[in-house]
Design a protein that fits this description.
This protein is mainly alpha-helical and 884 residues long. The protein has 32 helices and nine strands.
Length: 884
């Protein structure tokens, strides 16, 4: 600083100490009372805005495109996707109906429930959505099964069923049924009955070729929850209600049905849970490590207590400012508390270590306190200005989440400085720590606390040149991961389900949406999108009008004539007791057939039947009858629903746009006449380059294409632009401020050196450890920026001191303050590296690594380069020999 500025600051500090700090009890009482009122105000008024959609400016083009989509089709915004998966279509359908009915009753937590491909329309016209070839094959199979169904309708019991099985095995009977599939399911039913397990044979799979696939055994429910963004977990109440409905629905025969949930709402909810749990554990661990570090630094419980008390009061006042200025914390600014502790602890460390150093020299408590205020005041004020500028530089950016963080955290540094100059010295004055005076002759310095960075300045500079050159090369390979899914705990249900859906083009949630104002425009965009190499298919409302309807309706009409009479008169399953004789007769026929055809399916069925009959013979009559009746129910109870589905599907009628269900058409054609075109990816979008290519190609067709992938990519692009803008502004303003205060270009460059080198080395390290920048760890950069400048200021101050005073550079309070202040911050953030949330873990790794590099650059590299600026006086060892 200039002499005029320095003298004015010293006079101000001396006046403050004389008139204010001489009344420490009054000062503390006033501070505690104010903090109490501020705390009460904060508790009553501070909220948390967890809506991640508001993290970026709403004026950005991709945000406007997303809002246009949500306005046109609001039913798709903030939804929860449930995937219900059973062993059979019947089991899945029953679970879907129970769960959807239960959700519909939760009016206070669930806004709406939608079942894709469900309802009377699809029950009646479902066959029209098969291809003509698929419908022909199904028609042939059902026609061939007509005699089988006809005979079973005459005796719909276990006895009649196994009699038909026996006839099918008679080589003289020619049947077109796939008996291998039938016998495989029968084998499963026999094993379940023998073990006493619930089982339901699926006649839909046997008669209608409905295998395990999406829309058959895997069904979707889309629920729109009622969210409260004023709460820390906006979806908690809705998700609790959904889980309760699921638990009550999956009982009895549905006990083995699985239900999984995903969607942005669930992803964000589980992410918040993971972050909260991880940071809580990490916070406890870091507090323990910080306490140990401060004890090693201070060797005084009184100074430790004063530091924590000061930080706590500063944090309360900072939260009060956040409440007054912003009114809420967002998903990014909520981390300012950790930032405040890291930066505020550095201020306290410098102050306490300087006080301790002066007391060790023999100064009395009051004189040591005055000299601490005057000697640290200039550097701490300058550190506050530079760090605050680095944070305030984010205010004008479009990244509103970090902009609000900049307002709160930047101001909180001023508050931290204020409490460091008021509350901390008042506490020290009230309870001065005992510090033993150390004579000059008693001082010992290890190699680590000597001036070795000055002694070996030239080799250190050459090593720095080489490392900087390597880092510049690596800088070209820095990666950015813009997919927030990769930041979340991969073991949470929502993430696993999301990635499961990505495996199929038909179910991928990472689709793109284009909007059109007319039918012609919609069809044109669909055709152009389908031509893209990255697009598997594109869909519009018009794709719900089946092709070849006349031919399909003719096939259905013909099939109705063949199987319709049987279906109309098909009875319910028999309620009479099943007889063991039918199984024994079938066993005899089966063994006879095995003499000429020992296929694996029939061999397994024979063995299972043998064991089942043996068990029937070993139990009492009542148990035997119960087992037989259970087998009869397992084999036949699902048949009526299949017959009903067949009956309904044979009543199909021509489909037009006007006849489509309203809840379906409104998802593709808005009330304002806006058409939706949805593009599905051809490649795996877990690969970021595939996702980028998918988006860029689609934007050639429609520059305003939107949906999740665009939001992910454009958000990251905007975040990068925001950081580039903020760093450019912050660096320029800080450099100018340092130049004005120091009035020396070399000193200014010397202070900025740790920041520039640490930033460069940190970016290079992300390449070496294969850790791309992402939405979470990029937030670490403002903190590294502030600490890099602060460390440079403190060390430059120490080096100027060495020009006119004997002493060791690394043993002084400035170097120790930099070391211990940075070390406590490393422990504070480094513990986050062990959380399960991938984003938080990467932020912890990046911060710990960056802070460590900042420390090395400040304590080792900066002194080495300072030798180009000036040479300190020859510092004497106790032996009197020069160390330089």
């Amino acid at each position: 600083m200039s002499k005029t500025t320095d003298n004015l600051l010293v006079k101000t500090i001396l006046w403050w100490e004389e008139n204010i700090l001489n009344r420490p009890w009054w000062l503390l009482l006033f501070s505690v009372v104010v903090s109490g009122f501020v705390f009460q105000y904060t508790v009553n008024n501070l909220t948390v805005n967890t809506n991640t959609g508001e993290m970026l400016s709403p004026d950005l083009q991709f945000q406007q495109d997303r809002r246009r989509l949500e306005k046109a089709f609001p039913q798709d915004a903030n939804t929860i996707l449930l995937i219900i998966e059973g062993k059979t279509p019947e089991q899945t359908t029953a679970a879907v109906k129970r769960i959807s009915a239960g959700l519909s009753q939760q009016k206070d937590q669930i806004k709406s429930v939608y079942l894709p491909d469900e309802g009377e329309f699809f029950d009646r016209n479902g066959l029209l959505y098969l291809s003509l070839k698929e419908l022909q094959d199904l028609s042939t199979k059902l026609a061939n099964a007509q005699p089988f169904m006809g005979k079973l309708s005459q005796d719909n019991s276990l006895n009649g069923l196994f009699e038909l099985f026996g006839q099918a095995l008679d080589e003289s009977n020619d049947t077109e049924l796939d008996m291998n599939a039938v016998f495989s399911k029968t084998n499963e039913a026999l094993q379940a009955a023998q073990d006493g397990r619930p089982y339901q044979l699926s006649w839909q799979q046997l008669m209608m070729d409905r295998t395990s696939e999406i829309g058959v055994t895997k069904r979707f429910i889309i629920a729109t929850p009622i969210l409260n963004f004023q709460e820390y977990l906006p979806a908690e109440k809705s998700l609790t209600a959904i889980n309760q409905v699921i638990a009550s629905s999956l009982t009895g025969d549905a006990a083995d049905v699985s239900v999984r949930m995903t969607g942005e709402v669930v992803l964000e909810y589980e992410e918040m849970q993971t972050v909260t749990e991880g940071t809580t554990i990490a916070g406890i661990a870091s507090m323990f490590l910080v306490c140990i570090t401060l004890w090693i630094a201070y060797r005084s419980f009184k100074l430790m207590f004063a530091t924590f008390f000061t930080l706590t009061m500063g944090l309360v006042l900072s939260l009060g400012f956040a409440t007054f200025a912003i009114g809420h914390l967002n998903m990014i600014s909520i981390a300012f508390g950790v930032l405040f502790i890291g930066m505020g602890d550095a201020y306290s460390s410098h102050f306490c270590l300087r006080y301790r150093e002066l007391r060790q020299r023999g100064e009395n408590p009051r004189q040591a306190l005055r000299d601490t205020l005057t000697s640290t005041g200039g550097s701490l004020v300058l550190c506050t200005l530079t760090a605050a500028i680095g944070l305030f530089a984010f205010i004008p950016t479009n990244y509103l989440g970090v902009s609000e963080l900049g307002v709160i955290a930047g101001t909180s540094l001023v508050i931290a400085l204020s409490t460091t100059f008021t509350v901390l010295p008042a506490l020290i004055k009230i309870m001065p720590p005992k510090v033993r005076k150390i004579e000059e002759s008693d001082q010992t310095y290890s190699k680590l606390t000597s001036n070795w960075p000055l002694v070996y300045a030239r080799p250190i500079r050459w090593v720095t040149y080489v490392l900087a050159a390597i880092s510049l090369v690596l800088l070209t390979q820095v990666k950015v991961d813009f997919n927030p899914i990769n930041l979340r705990d991969p073991n949470t249900e929502s993430v696993k389900t999301f990635k499961y859906l990505l495996q199929s083009e038909d179910t991928s949630p990472m689709t793109l949406t284009s909007l059109a104002n007319s039918e012609a425009e919609a069809k044109d965009k669909e055709a152009r999108l389908e031509k893209l190499s990255t697009v598997d298919k594109a869909m519009t409302l018009f794709d719900f009008i089946p092709e070849d309807q006349d031919d399909k309706l003719a096939l259905i009409e013909e099939l109705a004539l063949i199987v319709g009479p049987v279906l109309d008169n098909f009875p319910e399953p028999s309620k009479e007791n099943a007889q063991i004789e039918s199984l024994e007769k079938f066993q005899a026929v089966l063994k006879k057939r095995l003499a000429t055809d020992n296929s694996s399916v029939m061999t397994e069925l024979d063995a299972t039947l043998e064991h089942f009959l043996a068990k029937l013979q070993s139990v009492d009559a009542e148990t035997r009858q119960a087992m037989l009746n259970q087998l009869q129910a397992s084999m036949l109870n699902s048949l009526p629903s299949t017959i009903q589905i067949l009956q309904t599907s044979l009543q199909a009628s021509p489909i037009k746009l006007e006849t489509l269900p309203k809840d379906l058409s409104e998802r593709w054609l808005s009330k304002d006449g806006i058409y939706r075109i949805q593009a599905f990816p051809k490649k795996d979008l877990n690969d970021l380059e595939n996702m980028r290519e998918f988006i860029l190609e689609a934007q050639q067709v429609d520059p305003h294409v939107t949906d999740l992938p665009v939001s992910y990519l454009e958000s990251m692009n905007e975040v990068i632009r925001a950081f580039q803008q903020a760093f450019a502004v912050a660096f320029g303003v800080i450099a100018l401020l340092l130049l004005i205060i120091m009035r020396n270009v070399k000193d200014t460059l010397l202070v900025l050196l740790p920041l520039l080198l640490a930033s460069l080395f940190t970016a290079a390290m992300t390449v070496l450890i294969d850790m791309p920048f992402n939405f979470a760890n990029i937030i670490a950069l403002p903190l590294l920026f502030g600490l890099g400048v602060d460390s440079g200021i403190h060390m430059a101050h120490r080096l100027h001191y060495l020009r006119s005073n004997d002493g060791n550079m690394l043993s002084g309070s400035e170097a120790q303050g930099v070391f211990f202040g940075t070390l406590t911050t490393i422990f504070s953030f480094g513990s986050l590296a062990f959380t399960t949330h991938q984003g938080t873990a990467s932020m912890g790794i990046l911060l710990a690594m960056g802070l460590l590099l900042t420390l090395v650059c400040a304590l080792v590299v900066l002194p080495a380069f300072s030798m180009l600026r000036f040479k300190p006086r020859l510092l004497k060892k106790r032996s009197g020999q020069s160390i330089l």
